[in-house]
Amino acid sequence: MPTPSIPKRYTIIVIVVLTLIVAFLVKTQEKSELVLQPKPPIQVQVFLAMEQVIRVTAPITGRLQPARVAKLSFELAGKINTKKIKPGQSVKQGDTLLMLDSYDVDDNLVDAKSQIKLEYTEIAKDRVLLKLAKQHSALQAAEVERLVRLKKSAMASRTSVDEAKQKLISLEKDQALLQQKSDTAAQRISLKQSAVSRAQRNAERTQLIAPYDGVVNIIHADVGDYVTANTVAVELIDISALDLRIEVSQMVASQLKVGQPVEVHVLGETLQGYLYSLQMAAKEDTHTYPVKIRIPGAKFLPGSVAKVELLLQEREMLVVPPGAVQSRFGDHFVFTYGDGKVHRQEVQLGIRQGAWQEIVLGLKAGEQVISGNLERLSDNQRAVLQTSAIEAH
After folding, report:
1. Among residues of the chain, what percentage have pLDDT more than 70?
2. Of 308, 326, 354, which residue sits at a domain end?
3. 110 and 135 together in one domain
4. Per residue in 238-274, pLDDT tens?
5. Whose CB has fewer CB within 10 Å in the chain, the N or C terminal residue?
6. Which is nearest to 78 in space by CA: 235, 231, 218?
7. CA angle at 89 for the pair 88 and 92, rounded to the nearest 5°
8. Which residue spans within 144-260 are E strands per DSSP?
């Protein structure tokens, strides 16, 4: 079946319509052009680096301890029969804390005193006997001389003379013994007196006495307990002053001086103390140096946490906030602002103290150092200052 043909005029009309549509679309289409706009300058905040007097301190934390701690013990063994204290009680120097049974010790003291009295009596008797012995010997010596003269005239026998001489020798022996006892009387008295003193000291040792004003901290024995010599019975502490015992490095220790004032912070309060002692030889295990800081009249209890800032030096230095310093691969740098641009400057750091970082090299006082948004900065980047952005510290 033959395909019907489209009239030629319709074909021309369709072509004309399509042409007009295309022309209209081309004419009305908005032309977009790619225009590269320059990146706007970044806003930065800066401050003027200035030299300031900075106190270099070493912050250390520790716990307060009593200025003195005495672990008291009896020098004798015995049974406790009296307790006059309890934990937390304040005592005065010389107060009796505990007592032992003293019956045997008291008997020993009575015996020693009696022995010395007997010795004095014995010495007095010996001196009287010595005097009599001297007289008796003198009389016997005269008798011997008389008999010797009589023997020469045959009026006395040899036997009577010999007997008289033997009696004289016996009397002189007794005299010598008495003389020796008299000569050693002082030494014998000293021995007896030592026994009395020893018994007296043992009597005193039955009492445990407070060596200084303080507070009873711990009692390790009670009435009826048997304690041996040198066994700790009472712990006495002195809290009229407190110590902060810390350990510091060699660098810190080398800049400290005994007696220098120190501020100690406890529970929000600031106390005035001083460096009481500094051990000059380092500990073998930690290689640190023990330091004791004393706080007179402290009102806090032992064991309270305390913080101290030891003043090492006070000097003028060029500083910036630590946040302004960047580090990369071991190098340190800051960004400064000048001539509308960001400049990266290598710096050498000194010490860091609190809110400040010392700059030793690479920066001068008065330069505008950028703080904040440092991760967005690069060298020679265009920048503008924020309004009221310059800070002087």
Report:
1. 92
2. 308
3. yes
4. 999 999 999 999 988 988 999 999 999 999 999 999 9
5. N
6. 231
7. 135
8. 207-209, 214-219, 226-227, 232-248
